[in-house]
Amino acid sequence: MGAPELAAIALVGIGAGVINTLVGGGTSMVLPLLILLGVDPQVANGTNRLCVAFQAAAAAHTLHGKTGVTRRVTLWPVLAVVAGSVPGAMLATVLDPALFRDLLGWILLIGVALFFVRRRRPPARGETDPEAIPSAEESGPEPSPGLLPPVGLAVTFLFGVYGGFVGAGIGVLILLYLPPLLGISMVRMVHVKTWMVFTLSAAAGVWYLAAGLVQLEVAAPLLPSYILGGVVGAKLALKGGERWIRRAVALVAAVLAVAVLAGWGR
């Protein structure tokens, strides 16, 4: 690859890192570019998945101590997605990704519908708007839920399978479905999501690396640009607030759903 191709990967990687952190779906920008540049699809998928782990780790570090999220909040979602990520990575070598893309499209559309019909409780007298998220210093840690309900654990495990398999849109799925199950705000869910994406991507990425499906020439420009995008995205999440993130999630989810059902990536 020449300098123009490497520069294109770096530029797209920054934008994808920001989108991955805030909403999810940045992989849908990176994978088509890598394939267009002649990278084998499985190698592109494996390289991207490993780099996403570093991007999510950078975002999680940037958000640490600023959202009030406790370790207990992240424990069960993280364990569930990690348990699913390695089987998902193994499936990537034997199953048709188009099947999973179609499934992703319908799941996203259903999630968007639920997202809009879900009615939030208006704030009681003396309460602040639950969508106007204060800083961690103002609010302190949110109440930490215990175990996810069985349905929540099953859904999170399946998200881990999909995340290990391809991962495009995994962040959107998490933000669409898990906030009500965890009982936390969208901004804090972004923080939990970064830990979930980091752990599932790291587990799957190690498997891809061991299987020889990571190309260092591609990772060299992609990894630092992803990290930069992750840091920028985390800072924007802290400034953007609940309403902005909710709208972005709904918009990206709808666009991604239509794209994958229309044949993106085939």
Beta-strand segment tally:
0
The biggest sheet amounts to: none
- Which regions contain 5 or more consecutive residues with pLDDT less than 50? 119-146
- Give the class from helix and strand content and strand pairing: mainly alpha
Strand content: under 5%
How far is it from the N-terminal to the C-terminal residue, by CA?
Answer: 24 Å
Gyration radius, in Å? 18 Å
Note down, in words, how this protein is organized.
The protein has 10 helices and no strands. It is mainly alpha-helical. Helix 7 crosses helix 9. The chain is globular, with a radius of gyration of 18 Å.
SSE order and pairing:
Elements: H1 3-22, H2 27-36, H3 41-63, H4 71-91, H5 97-117, H6 136-139, H7 150-165, H8 170-182, H9 186-210, H10 216-261
Helix pairs in contact: 1-2, 1-10, 2-3, 3-9, 3-10, 4-7, 4-9, 5-8, 5-10, 7-8, 7-9, 8-9, 8-10, 9-10
